Amino acid sequence: MAAETRQIQESILEALSKGSFTIEEIAANIGIHRTTVSKYLAIMEAGKVVEFRSIGKAKMFFLPKEAGK
To answer: How many angstroms separate the CA atoms of 37 and 1, rounded?
Structure first.
């Protein structure tokens, strides 16, 4: 299970390395259901691995600026 968790998180990080995306866009990009992506993004956001900005009803997720250094 830990290997699967790590693989999903790495897939999300790889997708976000290309820019800011909604949960639906990330899910489509990595081929995982949006509910699963949402769960992992919440965990990653709490750990300060990713950040988000609300734009209307959508949340745009992205990597923190420090991660790009």
So the answer is: 16
